Amino acid sequence: MKQRIITGVVGGIIFLVPVFLGGIWYSLLVFLLAIIGLYEFLRMARLKPYGFAGLLGYVLMISTLWPYLFYSQRFHIDFSDTLMPVLLLLLFYSVFRKNRFHIEHVALTILGALYIGYGFHYMAAVRGMDDGLWLTLLVLLGIWSTDSGAYFVGRAYGRRKLLPAISPNKTVEGSLGGLLTSLVVVIGLNGLVDKLPFWQAFGIALVTGIAAQIGDLVESAMKRHFGVKDSGKIIPGHGGVLDRFDSLLIVFPILYLLGLF
After folding, report:
1. Beta partners for 171?
2. Number of separate helices (H) and strands (E) present in the chain
3. CA-to-CA distance for 8 and 10, rounded, in angstroms?
4. Looking at residue 139, what is its pLDDT?
5. Is 162 helix (H, G, I), strand (E, B) or coil?
6. φ, ψ (nearest 5 deg) of residue 168
7. Residue of 217, 223, 227, 203 lying closest to 247 (CA atoms)
8. Torsion, CA 126, CA 130, CA 136, CA 142, rounded to 10
9. Which residues of the chain have pLDDT under 50?
């Protein structure tokens, strides 16, 4: 637990520096996290990250992410209409490999590329908006407070299991505690700074408190399906990039698509 807390604090500080700096520093951070995230996903799915199919997955993932990266304006690469060529190449590859790379592998490669690519796509898009820094910080604090609230309330008062088949340690009481913590933190901080209207802050807090937990459960379901404990080992005491950013990959797209930004 001590290592987990220390690593979490240090990692959070390191992560927040490029968030504040924005521009190319933030783009580099998002790009690096996306590359590592897809590597972890492919490894969990027992696919070769650097094989032909894996490289196609990276191309598809980068194509979804690229338009909102800072340096995409300086290096004009047209990634439009990438999905169909990648899909066709993966299907052809499955034939040439005589089903050693089969249709489920095709689906997993595309799923990983889109799941991770679009998650970080919206994370990059929000930071580039007006008030993007505040919106990004507010969502990050909402996610972290949801995680902390669910953990501590669950440990103290958790009795009824939430979804034991997917995540046996999560409880209904912890889930409600995470949602309540998100509402208090996001609405309270926005009230102090007075940046957003109340309805928008409330919407962000509510959706974040729910979607952050869904994102965590999605990752738990994947790991349970693939039979792994953690997506990776890059963060001591916390696992991999997907273990730490699973909520962000769901929260940012949902908030963006609901028009709360």
Report:
1. 161
2. 9, 2
3. 6
4. 94
5. strand
6. -65, -20
7. 217
8. -110
9. none
**CA 242 – CA 254 distance, rounded (Å):** 18
| Residue 254 structure tokens | 């949902």
The distance between the two most distant Cα atoms of the chain, rounded to a whole number of Å, is 62
CB 190 within 8 A of CB 203: no
Which pLDDT score, from 0 to 100, does residue 228 have? 86
Distance CA(47)–CA(31), nearest Å, equals 21
Give the pLDDT score at 98: 81
Burial class (CB in 10 A: 0-12, 13-18, 19+), 88: exposed
pLDDT at 70: 75
- Within 10 A of 54 (CB to CB), how many other CB atoms are there? 19
pTM here is: 0.86
Distance (Å, rounded) from C-alpha 146 to C-alpha 118?
22
**Alpha-carbon gap, residue 261 to 257, rounded angstroms:** 9
Give the side-chain half-sphere CA count within 13 A for 249.
Answer: 24
Side-chain-facing half-sphere of 92: CA atoms under 13 Å: 8
Nearest CA among 94, 217, 103 for reference residue 150: 217
Q: Which residues contact 172 (CB under 8 A, 6 or more apart)?
A: 158, 159, 160, 161, 162
Phi and psi, residue 222, nearest 5°: -65, -45
pLDDT of residue 22: 83
Task: Look up residue 247 and give its amino acid.
Answer: S
Q: Which residue has the tokens 């595309």?
A: 110
Q: Is-contact 249 216, C-beta < 8 A?
A: no
Nearest in space to 170 (alpha carbons), one of 225, 219, 208, 232 = 219
